[in-house]
Structures are given as structure tokens and as C-alpha cells.
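A further point concerns the way the authors explain their paired sequence and structure data. An entry of this sort, consisting of the sequence and the corresponding C-alpha cells, reads as follows:
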Amino acid sequence: MIFIISFFYMIVKSKKRKSDITFIIGTFNEEKRITYPIKSFLPYGDVLVVDNYSSDKTVEIARSLGARVVKRKNKGWTDDEDSVNFVLKHIKTDWTYWGGADEMVSKKCLELYKKVALENKYKVVIQRKKTLLYESGTNFIINFINMHFFKRDALDFKNNLMHQKGRFSSHVKPSEILYLPPIDEYSVYHFSVYTSEKLMNVTNIYSSHQAKLISRRFLRLKLIFIPVLSFFWHYILGGLFTLGMRGFIISMQFSLYYFLTYSKAYEIEHNITMEAIEKSFVKDKKTLLLTSPKSSIFKKIIGKISVVLISFLHKKFKFKNSDLTIKSKSNDEQIKKSIS
């Protein structure tokens, strides 16, 4: 009798619970995008929105659709150790999916997630991210290794780099990692809505944080070569050249991100701050208060040659249009006088 009651209790419990998955979505003012991922994920598990105190209707929309919402102030990303620990306290499932409001997964992939969670054979799923840039149908960023779906104890987020999604925990075995084919059916779709202005704002924030975390080993070489390699990786190997000028802009933006990250890391390592720079200027300022600089004869000769060259170029090109304007006005005046 007890066995029968327990059996029916398990059936009722399994029907009540969609799956052993919680879909975590990080948000900040995402009222225009939050509906799509929530509607996509809800049939396959619980949805938890981690909101960075949005000022729009993100929270109201999320709750009206059936998602749970918790608020936590962050720096614009939710995959640092403190944020992960905070989120894990608010979920009860063994499996988690981590994504943003600008990301979605196909139904076939969601069905696979559900199957993986049920079988409990694996602990981490590795899959491709398909990033769409500027317009629908684009996909030019090579990004095959992404860990969005995993068991809650399978990844270690200590000293995690931004968007790295952690590292494999020590107890995870190679046989417990499921690698999905890099095809559309099993991809995470990333709808990247960025103009240059928005991207520069985000890049400045992200690069400042990332610069504090990256290794200082071979920093100078990284500063020189990684931005160049990034451009080659995205523009040539990633196929962004097929997007024409848009692809060139995107590749340069990625290159700039890496340049800013490593240049800021270099500044941190060598204590190059606004205060340090200002302090170094004090000596020159005090000198200018007391005396005037004296240039060598060689510098004076070079200076005179420079003046002659610059003045010639100005007369030749800089004031060419203004001369034409003056001549045009004088010709108009002469025509008016002849008519009168």
C-alpha cells in the first residue's frame, strides 16, 4: 500500500515539475527582448530572471509571463563568483541554463536539454553560439565552445574571467561532458543589438574589469599581437569580410576591445593612473613658472624649416577654397557693376 502511494506521489510530482532545469536570464532594461526567451524556456523548466534593477517594465513583463524575479546589483554581467553563488541560493534544480535576454535556443536543443537532465549521464554541455550582427541571417563569429547548460556543481567560477562561464570542477570527468555538433539546431542564438556608440560604452566597462583579471605573463606581446590576431580571426576566418564595410567595422571593434583590455592591464601593472600622470607634470609646470625653455641650434633650424613647409602647404591647400571664394565674390561684384 505504501509503495502504491509513493508511486502515485512520484507521478504527480513529476507532472507538476516540468524538469530539473532552471533557466537563468540576466537582465537590465530588457522590456523589448525579455518576452521571447521566457516564452521559449517556460515549457521546459523554471525561469529565473536576475534583474540589475531595471528602470523599464522588464520585471513586470517577466512576472506576468510566469518567471520568477530576483534583483541584484551587478557590473553588467552575472558570471562572477559572487553573482553565481547568489543565484544558486534561489534555485532548487540540479541543472541550470545561463543566458541573457538577447539569447535563445531552438526547441530541438531544449528537448535535448530535458533529456540530458533526465538521464543524468553528463554534467556539462558544450555547444556553439550563433551570433547575429547588424541584421537577420548573419553569423560570423567563430565561437564553438560555450557552456550555457550544466549541473550546478560542475563548474568553478572562482576568479572567473568575464563571459568565461567558469572552469570545469575537479570532479568532472571527460566522459561527463557532452559535445554537441556545431550546427544551428544545437546552437545558442545570440541576437547582438549593438551600434558603435553602444558597443564603445560597453567595451570600456568590460575591458576595465577584464584588465584586472587577465594574466600579466607576456603582457607586452599580448598587447601588440592579440588585437591584430583578433581582427584576422573575425574578419578572415570568421567570414566577416562577406558583410562588406559592416564586417570591417565589427572586426575593428573586437580588435579595439582586446587592445583596450591589454593596454589597461599594462597601465595597472605600471601604476599609470590619472593621479600619477598629473603628479609627473608638476616638475614641468614649476619650471615654466620660473623660466623659459632653450632649444638647441639644431632644433631651431628644424623649426624654421617646419614653419616654411607648413606655411607653404597651408597656402597651397588649406586656403585654396577660401581664395576661390574671394575671387568668386569679386567676380560677382564686377558683374553687378557692369549691369548697373
In short: Confidence is low (pLDDT under 50) at residues 1-16. The chain has three domains: 2-192, 196-269, 294-339.
